[in-house]
Amino acid sequence: AQKITQTQPGMFVQEKEAVTLDCTYDTSDPSYGLFWYKQPSSGEMIFLIYQGSYDQQNATEGRYSLNFQKARKSANLVISASQLGDSAMYFCAMTGRFGNEKLTFGTGTRLTIIP
Amino acid sequence: DARVTQTPRHKVTEMGQEVTMRCQPILGHNTVFWYRQTMMQGLELLAYFRNRAPLDDSGMPKDRFSAEMPDATLATLKIQPSEPRDSAVYFCASGSGTGEDTQYFGPGTRLTVL
Predict the structure, then answer these.
(1) CA–CA separation, A27 vs A107, rounded Å?
(2) How many contacts, defined by CB atoms under 8 Å, are there between A and B?
(3) Is A57 helix (H, G, I), strand (E, B) or coil?
(4) What pLDDT is stored for residue A100 in this prediction?
């Protein structure tokens, strides 16, 4: 079974500062994928970034980067230069090996950017 | 701009009525997922398909829920009879089934059962 833990229910960050959202995971699959999704107040689920378990380098997508520490089973999301539009719920999720592609989600972190 | 589409976006119905939700996956994607989001349970998988064949429906109450893919461009989720506890947002997502396995979500159907 797979498990995602997000220990920060809510965070408040000043605009233009960097923010780190924590995520730890547990799985028995030898290969897996780690994802972050953003859910703004409008409700849609927006894919942000992906990290494969065998990827040597941390994933980056614009202002988003994933700090992947495999030995510690952590996959923290870093948002640089935060903007007001970054205010949303953020979900960490994972999939297992081929044939076990369902996403297992954490409980989410509500990020609020303060002007 | 390839997107997953879902209809209806909102549905209000009375207990006991049948509800059908539809999803059009991104063209070329061969895996389709149904998730449900509630305040109490968060996001949970109901069922998923690859190449139109069901692979996992263990998260779905079998007595009232059914999921099908009549063809590669349409997935349906049906609840019959609906109950107030089914009130939730139902998301469809699709993926290409490649090693990356990124799933792209539709806008969701917000279901309210009175």
Answers:
(1) 17
(2) 54
(3) coil
(4) 67
Average pLDDT over residues A95-112: 87
A66, A75 contact by CB (below 8 A): yes
DSSP H or E segment with residue B82: none
Residues of A whose CB is below 8 A from B93: 45, 103
CA distance A16 to A63: 11
Token pair for A40: 């703004």
Q: What are B12-70's pLDDT values in tens digits? A: 999 999 999 999 999 999 999 999 999 999 999 999 999 999 988 888 988 999 999 99
Is the CB of A102 less than 8 angstroms away from the CB of B45?
A: yes
Query: Both tokens of residue A47?
Result: 């894919």
A interface test, pick of B41, B43, B55, B89 with most A CB neighbours within 10 Å: B43
Helix or strand (DSSP H, E) at A81: none
Report the gap between the CA of A82 and the closest CA in chain B (Å).
Answer: 24
- Contact between residue A95 and residue B101 where contact means Cβ atoms under 8 Å apart: yes
Q: Are strands A60-61 and A64-69 parallel, antiparallel or unpaired?
A: antiparallel
- Output the pLDDT for position A97: 73
Q: Phi/psi class of residue B101: alpha, beta or left (left: φ > 0; alpha: ψ in -120 to 50)?
A: left
Closest CA to B103 of B38, B48, B33, B53: B33
List pLDDT tens digits, range A26-59: 998 888 999 999 999 999 999 999 999 998 899 9
